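By convention, the token line describes the chain's fold. To illustrate:
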Amino acid sequence: MHEREVKKRMKNEEALFGGTGLVRPLRRLRAGRVTADFMEDGSLKYIRYGSVELLRHLHPTLRDQDWGSAAGEVSELRFHEDEDAVQVTYRLDYRGGEVDFGCAIVIRLSSAGRVSMSMDGEARSGFRKNRLGFCLLHPMDSAGACVEATTPDGIVLGRFPELVSPGDPFAELKAMRIYAGGLTTHIMFLGDLFQTEDQRNWTDGSFKTFCTPLRLPYPVVMQQGEKVMQAVTIDVTDDAGSLEGGQEIEAGSGTARMQAVVRREQAFALPALGTLLPPMDGMPPARVVGLLRELGLSQLRCEAELSLPDWKTRIEAAAELALELGLAYELQLIAEPDETALREAAAAIAALAPAPLRIAVFPAAALDVPTTSAELYGASLNACRYVTDDGMAALLKRLLNEAAAAARAGAGVDAGAAADTGSETGADTGSDAGGGAVSEIQVGAAAEDGGNAGGAVVETETEAAVGEETGSGGGAESGIEVGGGSRGNFAELNRVALPMGLSWDFAEFAVNPQVHASDLASIAETLPAQGIVCRTAIASRRDMPVRIGAVTLKQRMNPYSAGEEGVQRSRERGNRLDPRQSSSFAAAWLIGSVAQLAREGIASANYFEAFGPLGFMDEDGGNAYPVHAAMKLIGEFREGEALQVDGLDPSRVAALGLRGKERVVVLLANLTADELSVLVDLSEWKQPNAAISRLRGASSEAAAAAGAAERAEESEESASLQPDASVTLQPFETYVIEFRA
């Protein structure tokens, strides 16, 4: 391949998936009815017996003292195959920082229904580790399956949980027998005890069984010359012969034809969608403001850390930009549980015009684990200390009410007089001194189908200025909701059960797909897990609104780092960057995420940063990313509803139906590197004259540099979609099907 062709291919891969995270299968292994994909990183994926998936992933892992995953290098790879068995051998070396560890891996598949993987390794240096050995990922479809767990104390019976479990379903494992899919799968572990956790807590699309119980202290110091030997053996039996002649599925293959059934009657309210305020030096350029208006968002979210000198400037900038955009806004306050600091913050918030719609408050550092959580889930789960303390939320509510009352008294006007002093943009401050809640917000140009993608519709704050309920509305004086939850993942909120949180007006947590893995397939597989996480959160919080504070490609903090220094290091901006942010894959993932959240009834969610390398466009608005085109189209239906689309694997094809007053749009987004064929079933709709086009999301950089207002079209010229026609989805691309409602 010539240099020019290489550069062209690299540029194309960067545009499609950021040029990173694509782990390809090297070979399909097959022994009788047992199949597995051997991946280029040395792991096994999609281990199946016939059509039944036994394991999603079986792989060796080395996790450092901050739970970071070390990258291994595969060498000396050899395959040996005959009629009844397959054997793969290779060396795997981990090098980086203080880590130097090497091992020999042997994989065997037998037509008798056996799969095994063994490790024989040695530390070539001293280093700290939290985990070293094998991990097994059970597919989400295992939920509800019966399990017979063998422990040092005997047999324990249980099930994989349906809703997301805050604790670990199985512990101290020597073996486990799983009854699912008409099969009995017996898994045996050698070299260590294993433990199963519900990895859906972090929106992973799996249950994970891993080596070394978490009850044991970590990190562990490995000594130079120390040896590690482990083995996992899987035996499958189909005594009833129920799978004889069953269709085998080409796991990971793009050849299978899928069907997308667009439902007419199954509809859901869309969450109020917002975005995060990035670090700013002054207001963003006019081009950025214009592109943000196009998104049809409902709110802007600002994070302010009270220990930093710029916190007051941050919240003032949020109020100013929200007013400019015609949006409501919310604050995330990170503070010590100190009345003096919170009182100062409350006074500053009372002076804001307009006032924030809601505030989520979180501790700056780890607080003590609630006793019930510590006893129930064990001291190892220290990350649940990063949730909002009830006393902290109640204190902030009281201080906000006092500050609002003081502001009104100091201004010498009552709330009725203040209501007559609207701002020049149409936002009513509700107080002469800016100490009240927003009474009216003018929201940009009216979108098609009654949506508010930037339009002139005026709503009262009691309608949330975003078309959603506002919960209990916070204190009677301030009118600001105060809520809490987890700064990190759902896991932390899930482990702090009621009655903790009863003082909150809403509960929230953050979502990111890369806590445990960063390859494209694993990121895509988090999408269906988002749905069950939201369902669990809503069920556990009873009638309290549940919100997603931040949805990002990478985590904004790592509560599992060793010590507070590690947590703060994880929050550095450089650790949040992902080259896939500006790719087509990110747009597909966004579409899949909104579909999951809408179906489960999440009240609101904030996606990405507004602009910059973590946002919808670059810092000057010269290049709008594909996520901008996707969110813009979704925003046009803010006043509409989401439709159920059945028949697809949501980890391979993201599907979101949108219905407004006059039109229906169905987004189909390919999350894979394969070309996929999808049969579009519109049989529930009366003779729809549907058109299909490919979503485009890039602006013309040359035009932007010249200051031109024209932008590239978001979609290609459309073509007619024939009834019961198949659509070919190109890798990582999004397609738009549109017809009249």
About this structure: DSSP finds 13 helices and 38 strands in the chain. Residues 265-643 form a domain with the TIM Barrel fold (CATH 3.20.20).
